[in-house]
Task: structure prediction
Amino acid sequence: MADINVDISLLPEEVRRKLAELNLELSEGDITQKGFDKKRSKLLAPFNVQQPPQDTGPSAPSPQTAAQRKAHRRLTREDNRYHSDSSSDDDSIFGEDVSRDFNRGGRFRDSGASSSSFSDAGASPHHQGGRGERPHSAAYAIPGNTSRQALADVLQSSRHCPRHQGKVSAKIQQLLNTLKRPKRKPLKDYFVEEDDALEAPQPDPNAPKPEGSTLTPVPGEQLVVPSGLPRNLEAALQRYGSSTYKANAVTVLDQNGKPSINLTYGKLLSRTHKIAYTMLHKVGQKGEGGIKPGDRVALVYPNNDPISFSCGFYGCLLAGVVPVPVEVPSSRRTVVVDDSKDAGGQGIGFLLGSLNVQWALTSEACHKGMGKSSNGDVANFKGWPKLSWFITDHLSKPPKDWHPPPKQSEDCPAYVEYTQSKEGSTVGVKVTRSAMLCHCQTLTVASNYTEGEVMVCVLDFKRDVGLWHGILCSVFNGMHVIFIPYSLMKIDPASWMKMITKYKASVGIVKSRDMHWGLLAQKDHKDVNFSSLRLLLVADGANPWSLTSCDAFLNAFQSKGLKSEAICPYASSSEALTVSIRRPGKTSASKTGRGILSMQGLSHGVVRVDSENSLTSLTLQDCGQVMPGAVMVVIKIDGPPVLCKTDEVGELCVCSGYAGTGYWGLQGITSNTFQVQPLHGDGRSAGDKMYVRTGLLGFLGPGGLVFVCGSKEGLMSVSGRRHNTDDIIATVLAVEPMKFIYRGRIAVFSIPVLKDERIVIIAEQRPDCTEEESFQWMSRVLQAVDSIHQVGVYCLALVPPNYLPKTPLGGIHLHETKKKFLDGSLHPANVLMCPHTCVTNLPKPREHRPDVTPSAVHVGNIVQGARMAWAQGRELSISDEDSDSARKVPHQFLTEILRWRSQTTPDHNLYTLLNSKIQGKWPYQVQAQLTMTCSQLHKRAERIGSMLMEKGKLNTGDHVALIYHPGIELVAAFYGCLYVGCVPVTIRPPHPQNISTTLPTVKMIVDVSKASAILTSSIVLKLLRLKESTGIVETKAWPTILDTDDLPKKKLAAIYRAPTPEMICYLDFSVSTTGMLAGVKMSHAAATALCRSIKLQCEFYPSRDVALCLDPYCGLGFGLWCLTSIYSGHHSILIAPSEVETNPAVWHTAVSNYKVRDTFCSYGVMELCTRGLGTSTATLKARGVNLSCVRTCCVIAEERPRIHLTTSFTKLFANLGLSPRAVSTSFGCRVNLGMCLQGASCPDPTTVYVDLRALRNDRVTLVEKGSPHSLCVMESGKLLPGVKVVIANPDTKGQCADSHLGEIWVHSPHNATGYYTIYGDESLHADHFDSHLATGDARLSYARTGFLGFVRRTELTQSDGERHDAIFVVGALDETVMLRGMRYHPIDIENTVSRSHRKICECAVFTWTNLLVVVVELEGNENEALDLVPLVTNVVLEDHYLIVGVVVVVDPGIIPINSRGEKQRMHLRDGFLADQLDPIYVAYNM
Result:
């Protein structure tokens, strides 16, 4: 701000008012200091007057005032701390001492009083430092209905009053300004916006800048057309077809290399007349649409048949029809199109459709080879419009009196030439009749063509240089063209040289690759003679690296008569057609036309000379001068078409009579490409000529020499510097190319990742190259590219030989290769990713502020007016159960309730166990395996208790392990233990197919729980005594094992009653997702309180039927299976999840049979049904399955709701009557088994969308659905009665606001009473089960759930009339990974990765030595494994700004999942470190 020197008092009133409002925004935290400075500078800029420093006039601020302003600025910056800190976890930043000052009325908030002081020339002396009392004016209140007119009057009068220097006037002014302003928007959560910090790297300020003068348009020599040339192409065809009808026009070599196929000019003329006549008069007589002049028709001829193509092309010209030459689909021999074999074929089809092409011309041989449909017609190709086919062979002669129709305007299209944009889309360039003629005349003059010359052409005759010279100019000049098919070139690379020698050809049209191949065919060199050759056009001569092949070719064949001036580089463009030709006899001023330039300078867009032997130099050969009759300019590559300077690299543009006129049907990009009007730097037009962009990058040298150093298609802009794909390819080839890769089989392109371009190199490796050799070669390539180009390679991949998509003439189809790479269908053999070295624009890591205290955060929340994050279920009182029957039920002990039910309702069915068998015919019934009434359960529990006392010799308080498969026997054993005062511990039995890994867990729980005996069934007992089991755990190592299938008939003398309800009822053991075994103690009081809350929430009564399909071993699943039926008396229908694995329809059928209103399941069961019944809903409906009776279908879980799964389940079974609002989730954890559960009368579950970037910073920002970086989070059910939760900072224990993510703390009567461990370690008890908030209500005791979440008040109304507070669980605190100072939830990264490729069936992430490791399960062939590595790296970078360190591809089923369907990431990490995963591939990103 030092550069702005303005007397504020002299400014207009409007500007001063805006400055006052701006300063008020700063003082209140509505704007950052940076934004304030920017806006203030903008306001003052028009009034800025530069004054000499020595001026001490009245307008200059006094030193005292300047010091005061400096103090004010410092004070305002501190004031911002009330609202946020950009990098801390907390919202308020001032500490304990500052908050005390705030409470005493200190100066901090009073800084607002000086918000307009900068506009006063002299501030009040009372404002200078010190702690002043808050001015009384701050307490004044202006009524809300004060009219704006009165306010305007006050402002108007204040304008004419003398300016007061005191503090009170400033406060009044501030208050008035505040009233004028609209209502303040809520304060945003201040943290570093990663998208703002993530900017593409700025260009190097030390980079070389262009220093030359602005380029002026450079004209070529005047085009002088020789008088003897035909007036147009049709006239040329008529002339040579009549006068020299026996002269050969076209010769084609057969597969043996023999020139056996010829076409004379007489035959060419007669065949074109036949085709033109037949097209206009005979085609379409069978009901098909005919062909009229002006229609577009496709020319579909194979690359070895230029004769038929020439006849078809000239037949179209004679008929006035517009030919569109296209490639024959390479999959023509099969009806089903294989995309990999038909690279770009769909783009051709799209072009034909946009041109409204209905007819295609082809040869008989080509037509026979195409796939046919059942009726014999040519099958439609993928992406192509429906075409009618016209075979141009064996046609009848036209009548003698027939003449071709008169030609239309010279501005109408003569033909359409297809090309591809940089993005890979196929477009058609229109060439008018006048442009076609002008092009032929220009090429004739430039190449000095004469009648009867022999031309040898190796190029594609359907487009580009091959079409212009081999088809058009040859006929225009009556020349003889010998075409060499590409298929022959692969067999005999020297065939073109032989034809030049044999026919004494004067013109050859080749590419540098043909020259390179010709060099390799050394055995044929002895017979070659190039003395007749005056013009060897190198069609890709614009590529700077073609110079190497040209020089080597000249050195090899100069002794064979090849003249140095005969080699002519050729620059061409699909849009501008011929750009320039290096013509014999037209040498430059320096004669050689070569320059050695610095590649570093070129990367910055400037021309700088380099030393000859430098590794970073590029030798450029000119491509000749500006063409006759043309004008050329060079414009900047990006932005408006501003003329470049003479030493600046830009895009070459041509103004000529022969250029294309536009893209067919694409007006927008046509004007941008074909109608360019260059501008001077100041925006003035540089003339009235319209130019055409060539897509070539280069500059114009002295004498109009054209230098090309790259193409726009191959341009890669990385970190502000431009690199060309050809340069990178040349560097790659320099690293021992012949040993490891094929020379011409390299693809280089860039992909956008994280707001910058990243370089990808893909090459075909030789079959005998080992993996170790490949990686050594790749490492050398990385070093070479880095040292020569100073740029990193993002991805280097090697594919098997002959694997990359090909163009029709055998080159690499770059767009298709890039598409396959991005789609994950390239199937590389080796991949090396280097994101650590390439990605340098990541946002700065978040810095934590350990000095921020919880009280400072609390005060900051109060200042912001933020609502504190807490919620509670409805009050739990005895009046909730006011029925007569409810009053009679004992509430303290479940054993007493069971005994009471066995006496009052002995025959009431409490449990029904179902199996997977479905009986009979319609209506189908699920088979009941076992039912149990209250009396039966009570008696069985007594017998089990008796066995424990007699056979087990157990005492009161002993622990008993219950190892049962899901069923009623588990319930009976549980109450049998309670009947004799033993403490039951439910344990999942070992899995028969996986004993080696599941049995040790069983043994560990038995040991940790100090079980004195084991109750089990005979089936499980056999499992424990198997040979495999005893090899892991000896039989003697188990405590006493009691088989409850063999029970005594003895009755218990008395049922044990605990002295106090606070005594332990049972132990609840489970393994967390981090692999930790944790057991909690549940008291009798907590168990009954849990049942009571569930009963009230779900409205459970004895008349209810409740279906349970979940595991009954821990948490809320155990409570629903074993406890709630006893307490509430409802009928529980039990379905083991293993039965759903056998028959996915059993759960739905049971719910339908029993007309169940409330059903509970696990995510595992829901997934089984979704996958297993995805195509069977119609069958189920036909069988009478109806789910309209379901009121609540609740998923029991200890994790963030899986919205995708619940939504899929709801949509899938909506056909069976399942209501969308019925499906919900719940939440419980170790310290509180049941916190949230969706009840019948609860509001519908709430879904919100939060910003993922804010979530990483422990902030909660709600966004709209579909917003970028949005995450959908669903409410985890409604809080149970008696439950209160708060959100607390897990580190400081301060209560959070509802805009913060924090740990969920819970207070309820059914909290667990503590951990149970074998070591008796009670150190964690106080922290986890008896925590107190550091701010807020510090008296209440809470249990820490270890889960992060947030609370949001919704618009929904609860049953008690209050607004509903929804609780959202985000993830487990132990599972979060801290990277770059931010908190990431693995599930978010995993969801992103799973979406990156369809073959990823599961994914898990963890960290290892600060590296992010991503493990993906591949559901496909092993050759697809390496496709996943780049995709996974890209998507995690894009969505989470994280660099993946290691990508591990494994087979399905490798990622361990616990019984609740949760991933065991720590077990996976241990397996990875111990090298036990048996991966398909492990990629270590560099």
